[in-house]
Design a protein that fits this description.
The protein is α/β, with parallel strands linked by helices and about 375 residues long. Helix content is about 50%, strand content about 5%. The protein is built from 17 helices and seven strands. Bound molecules: adenosine-5'-triphosphate and magnesium ion.
Length: about 375
């Protein structure tokens, strides 16, 4: 199969040298059992590549199990990955198979590998080395035959330097590393994506596709696409759907790509919008700063002997006085945080990953807070 046929068969768009090189590597590694690490910013197509590797492998008939390490609370991650024995911990009423066991003879796609807790990393390394693992609550090693594809948008080397990621695991993983460059570094792919996405949307929504002017394409090619291919796809979708049947010109592009607005007015929106995310990040950071200011004030008061056993009433009394000074507008921080989370979830139609991204917190933190505030 030549490269073009391979790309068509596995749905990998792109004509840039970068994508071609990636496809060549995929064609070579797919039929092997080698562990592959896919890196790149959010929305560059890591999952597209992972699926292609699995589907072009000898394991294609078996399942590929996708696990997002960032979305599983730390406390249960090992039992999720490796399974547990009945009675291994409170609540472990039945023996449970882990994802590795479920993926036996197939492929496991471990997304956001950088979020794997350091204690779990050593167990993961053992699986990579000899397929051995133990269920939580068992001392009997078990074996699986699983092909691992891992992905991350973090710089694992920096994580290693900060002691967040084990260097032995890092070296093991990076032996085959497919780095997908951001869209702004392979602009030749942009027209290809625009054309394909536009035709798909037009067909799906029964819209006549009247094309793009060369100026529109140039403008789309020049934008920096912080959300990469996902963002481009969303912009194309919004333009086609809202401008129904109209030929898209530079003026339309400016309307839908926020950062390209000449007058900065808020015009039709698409999801997710990086600039709105940025706004939300600012608000969230401001909240965190307020919170840490309050903590500072509290600790100063405590150091000055206003608290201690039986003495905490003084601090609280003072805080109460302050509250009254601000009057009705004062909203407790946790309430504020809860509202922001509800708003973010709402904004992203319950998509926790995007909501977490928007709030600039990890998915795991968001998961925990959703539980904490009873938002499930
Ligand atoms: N080369 C490509 N060919 C076809 N579609 C692509 C390609 N790259 C990205 N896409 C599309 O862009 C969107 C994002 O891709 P994907 O989910 O694979 O990104 P990701 O790198 O896994 O993102 P994240 O880090 O946020 O999980 C999807 O809709 C996907 O279909
Ligand atoms: Mg992904």
């Amino acid at each position: 199969m030549d490269r073009d046929q391979f790309q068509a068969k596995y749905g990998i768009l792109g004509e840039s040298i970068e994508i071609r090189e990636i496809v060549d590597i995929i064609q070579q590694v797919a039929p092997t059992d080698l562990t592959v690490l896919i890196t790149g910013e959010s929305g560059v197509g890591k999952e597209v590549i992972a699926k292609a590797i699995h589907q072009a492998s000898l394991r294609a008939e078996k399942p590929m199990i996708s696990v997002n390490a960032g979305a599983i609370p730390e406390g249960i991650i090992e039992s999720e990955l490796f399974g547990h024995e009945k009675g291994a911990f409170t609540g472990a009423g039945e023996t449970r198979k882990g994802y590795f066991e479920l993926a036996d003879h197939g492929t496991i796609f471990l997304d956001e590998i950088g979020e794997l807790p350091i204690g779990t990393q050593v167990k993961f390394l053992r699986i990579l080395e000899n397929g051995e693992y133990m269920r939580v609550g068992s001392a009997t090693p078990r074996k699986v035959d699983v092909r691992v594809i891992a992905a991350t948008n973090k710089n694992l080397e920096a994580e290693v330097n900060q002691g967040e990621f084990r260097s032995d695991l890092f070296f093991r993983l990076r032996s085959i590393n497919i780095g997908i460059p951001p869209l702004r570094e392979r602009r030749d792919d942009i027209p290809v994506f625009i054309d394909r996405f536009a035709r798909q949307v037009a067909e799906k929504n029964k819209i006549t596709f009247a094309g793009f002017t060369p100026e529109a394409i140039d403008l789309l090619k020049s934008y920096r696409w912080p959300g990469n291919v996902r963002e481009l796809r969303n912009v194309v979708e919004s333009m086609l759907v809202i401008e129904r049947g109209k030929r898209i010109d530079a003026a339309e592009v400016r309307k839908y790509v926020r950062e390209l607005h000449e007058d900065g007015r808020h015009l039709p929106v698409y999801s997710p919008k990086p600039s709105e995310q940025a706004e939300r990040e600012l608000i969230y950071r401001a909240l965190l700063e307020m919170k840490s200011d309050i903590m500072d004030i509290k600790s100063i008061l405590e150091r000055n002997g206003h608290t201690g056993p039986g003495g905490s009433g003084i601090v609280e009394a003072r805080v109460d006085t302050d509250n009254q000074a601000v009057g009705e507008q004062f909203i407790p921080l946790d309430e504020m945080e809860k509202r922001m989370i509800i708003q973010a979830l709402d904004r992203f139609n319950g998509n926790r990953r995007l909501a977490a991204e928007g709030l600039n917190i990890s998915e795991r933190t968001l998961y925990r807070k959703i539980k904490q505030y009873g938002l499930e």
